[in-house]
Amino acid sequence: MKILLINPEFPASYWSFPEQLKFLGAKTMNPPLGLLTLAALLPKDWEIRLVDLAAQPKSDLDWNWPDMVMISGMLIQKGNLVELIKEAKSRGKTVVVGGPYPTSVPEEPLAAGCDFLVRGEGENTVPLLLESIKQGKLGCVIENPEKPDLALSPVPRFDLLNLRNYEAMGIQTSRGCPFGCEFCDIINLYGSKPRYKTPAQVVKELDTVYKLGWRGMIFICDDNFIGSRKHAVALLKDMDVWMKANSSPFSFITQASINLGQDIELIDLMTQPNFATVFIGLESPDEDVLAGANKFQNIRNPLLESVNNITRNGLTVLGSFIIGFDGEKPGMGKRIAAFVNETNIPIIMFNKLQPIPNTKLWDRLKAEGRLLEGKDGGNFITSDLNYIPSRPKWEIDQEFREVWDELYNRSNFLLRAYKYYLSMRPTRKAGAKKQGIKVVEPPEESRSLSATLLDMSQIVRLSWRQGVVGDARLQYWTQLFGILKKNPSRLVPYLTSLVMAEDLFKLRKEILSDKNLPERA
Hints:
Rossmann fold; 2 domains; TIM Barrel; alpha/beta; six-stranded parallel beta sheet
């Protein structure tokens, strides 16, 4: 059996970072981990090829080769996913679809003509799929309500990838999240009781990508890496042993909840094996808004103190805020901007609320008659509101524009990034060297989003953009030499944030010129 796995196109979004990818020579950010896991669950004697349209041209699709086409995608990829189903069927192929989007909204892929629609996770649905294929039961929905034991999950087929296409490799150590935020679909997709791979499984995956030649950033795409502290501690200790034994070839980025900021010991355990960055959903500085969104963990753990603790102890925070929650008072944008400026977090994902299928928020707004049909694209920045908000839409749009204008004004951003990395402790190796202590193991946090950012040609390009033709030239050079003098061990993440900002400066211009964001009704 010849199987063609297809990852649909990934439309432009906050996470596309095209300018950063140009700087670093990659085609897209992360590989399609779900399809790689699927490939490992299929029979060993099947011939499998992967085409990742987020990184490859459509011309790489050889429709004549496969006996069967398997497609997976997220909500934001739904347009191309449906197109691919229709094209594959027009060419007489048997089509299987699965992943987060078909699991949440099966109606559209089914209407497009897929032969099998798989809802849920592959570890306990692929055996059912294989039996249905064997029996020739076309046109069926395959699902298993049970959540699989991840100890049964195989090492993904990383060998199917062209590693040069990606800025970061992806692995997963757990699924599910213990929190129940109203706007999030994780607990509906993967459950509120986190499930885990064993530390031995994770180390085997690290070893696999290492032997394939990968070096640099690895995105641990767990829904909440610290959902279980006990599991995280055991895993981090084994990762640290492996990293030191292999000369620290990777740095890590992951997602975590804000309670990390109240656990200095856990932060230290993360920086030991070279965790560099954590993405945290901050959402709102207003406690009543957080309570309304069921984000109680952000109330129990003081946001400002927690963010500062994470930063000072060696991890870069990528923060996310949302505007448009029910019960918001006017001036939310100003309060969010004030929080960002107080913490100096450089990279902020600032979203408009977009209710998505398979969430409590979606169900509530649907029951209240407040959902707007045909507006569920899953792009939380460039899409228009897909619901009727509790305060005037023009007010939300105006504050959204004002925050983007302020946060990604070039000079404002540069100052924030400078203050942020000056406040971060030096790496352990740098600190020990200052005290005259010899450290033989590689330094943690030695890399940021790219292991090769300090390539001279890249620094020259960055310096040309921001230090020659940019509108904050003097500030760029003053701060560059300031970092080199005052906290040189944090130069790499500082420069990485400046590279990432090139995309955000561009996105700011698009938002400010968007005619769909009226100043006032």
